[in-house]
Write a structure and sequence with these properties.
Order of helices and strands: HHHHEEEEEHEHHEEHEEEHEHEEHEHEH
Distance between the termini: 62 Å
Strand order of the largest sheet: 1-10-12-11-13-16-14-15
Structural class: alpha/beta
CATH architecture of the largest domain: 3-Layer(aba) Sandwich
Number of helices: 13
Helix content: 25-40%
């Protein structure tokens, strides 16, 4: 019996020591050493799962449009909490946000002269409505703010149409957001805007406008029309024919309504109080079902976090999903998150956002908040920006299987904007947007426009970058 006892003791000792040794060995593996294997595992899991697609169908086909303050948005908030809880995330919560409640109501636009036909239109978000009988007036077509200004008060009582072809979104969207005030200041009765898109199939594109000084500049009704109708009315004016249009809109603001940002976490292994945010916006316009803007971004962020949560080696920092409310017509969700988590922002290592559809992932835009008062010459960079960009370029080889290797300085996203302003490095997912602009803010923004394989690649890209930033020793700017 003696040799057996001795042997048993030895075997028991080895059984106890071996796992401890293995654990010790695993602890000695650095984040840099562990990252390639972790990235490969995350990519493999993402490319072999259809969970993001299933979630997208649940959200867009099951719930539908999600305009802030609507029943659809309320249902989406509940769905987000249920889905993240089911996915195993912790600290799932709906953080209250008050949002503007804009209601579209019935609307129409009809050409009355030189012949009669309906115009394809969508009222712009936040617009006021027309009188119950509508507005009937001659149309004046302009191609720029300068051209409008040159007409002076000759546009008084008329409907101004901005027929401005798409160049870049940032440049062209000014006519949608500011066009109402500019025309009203010269006495116009209403505004029509050529849809902000390079492509149209008689499809109007909505979007928000802003009345910047409603006490001194009368808010006027504003709607988007299709490229085809805008150019048709412009051609008529060019040959000396004055188009006449009747516009009817029941649009109205109904004060504020309760909503929420939905959050959930994968807690960090060793630095749980430090955070990497992965995010999107849960609300959408009431046209279409918001599949690319931004349902796809939401399911990408949720699935990226779920996959990170399945890893044996969790990242050092917490990965926090944030589904923002009210991006489309107010950005209340982005501001509310930055305010509610102001005490945590110094420990946010990075904030990522996906809000340019779900085309093939191309890489990331890096937005680094610079010290107040910093002024750079055109084309110049700050050392902090250079360090962050270098970190992202070091990660690019891990994303080569996905084609997401382009790293550049640029805009990170609207929802994380207030958080970035609070000192947090921002990352915006960069996509192939070829299929984005033709359906942006239209009835055509629906699930079948999303490529399921590209969606999986987006999940993989976000998961790898979020994991890498959550597990590295320093912040993105260190």
């Amino acid at each position: 019996m003696r040799p057996f006892v001795v042997g048993s003791v030895v075997l028991l000792s080895l059984a106890l020591v071996a796992p401890a040794a293995a654990r010790k060995k695993r602890k000695e593996v650095s984040a840099d050493e562990a990252l390639p294997a972790a990235a490969a595992e995350l990519i493999g899991k993402a490319l072999s799962s259809d969970r993001a697609w299933t979630r997208l169908v649940e959200l867009c086909d099951g719930i539908g449009p999600r305009l802030s303050g609507s029943v659809g948005m309320e249902r989406a908030v509940a769905w987000g909490q249920e889905a993240m809880t089911e996915d195993g995330l912790v600290n799932v919560a709906a953080e209250p946000v008050m949002v503007p409640k804009w209601v579209r109501g019935s609307e129409s636009a009809r050409l009355l002269h030189p012949h009669e036909r309906d115009l394809a239109m969508l009222g712009l978000g936040n617009s006021v409505g027309t009188p119950p009988e509508g507005i009937e007036a001659d149309v004046v077509v302009v191609g720029s703010f300068a051209e409008l200004e040159g007409l002076g008060d000759s546009v008084a009582g008329k409907i101004v149409l901005y027929d401005v072809p798409f160049t870049t979104y940032g440049a062209t969207v000014q006519y949608r957001s500011k066009g109402g005030d500019a025309a009203s200041a010269q006495g116009a009765a209403a505004v029509l805007v050529r849809s902000v898109t390079p492509v149209s199939l008689a499809t109007p594109h909505t979007g928000a406008l802003r009345y910047r000084d409603p006490e001194n500049v009368k808010p006027v009704p504003a709607a988007a029309v299709s490229i085809e109708d805008a150019e048709s009315l412009h051609r008529l004016q060019a040959i000396g024919v004055t188009p006449r249009v009747r516009l009817h809109m029941e649009a109205r603001m109904e004060g504020e309504a309760p909503s929420a940002n939905v959050v959930g976490e994968v807690r960090g292994r060793t630095k749980p109080d430090e955070v990497v945010v992965v995010s999107c916006h849960l609300d959408s316009w009431d046209a279409g079902t918001g599949a690319q803007d931004d349902g796809a971004g939401c399911v990408v962020a949720m699935e990226a976090a779920r996959l990170i949560g399945t890893m044996e080696r969790k990242p050092a920092r917490t990965v926090r999903v944030v589904l923002f409310t009210n991006e489309e017509n107010g950005l209340a969700g982005g501001r509310a998150y930055a305010e509610a988590h102001a005490h945590e922002l110094p420990k946010h290592a990075a904030a990522m956002e996906s809000d340019t559809g779900a085309g093939e992932p191309l890489g990331y835009r890096v937005h680094i908040p610079l010290p107040e008062g910093t002024e750079l010459e055109d084309g110049a960079t700050h050392p902090t920006e250079e360090r962050a960009l270098a970190v992202m370029k070091d990660l690019a080889p891990l994303l080569e299987p996905l084609g997401a290797t382009t790293m550049e300085l640029g805009y990170a996203g609207a929802d994380i904007g207030p958080t970035v302003k609070g000192g947090v490095p921002g990352l915006g997912m960069k996509h192939d947007m070829t299929g984005y602009w033709p359906i942006h803010h239209t009835h055509a923004d629906t699930v079948e426009k999303i490529d399921p394989i590209a969606l999986r690649k987006n999940v993989a890209s976000m998961a790898v970058v979020a994991y890498a930033l959550a597990d590295r020793e320093g912040r993105l700017t260190d």
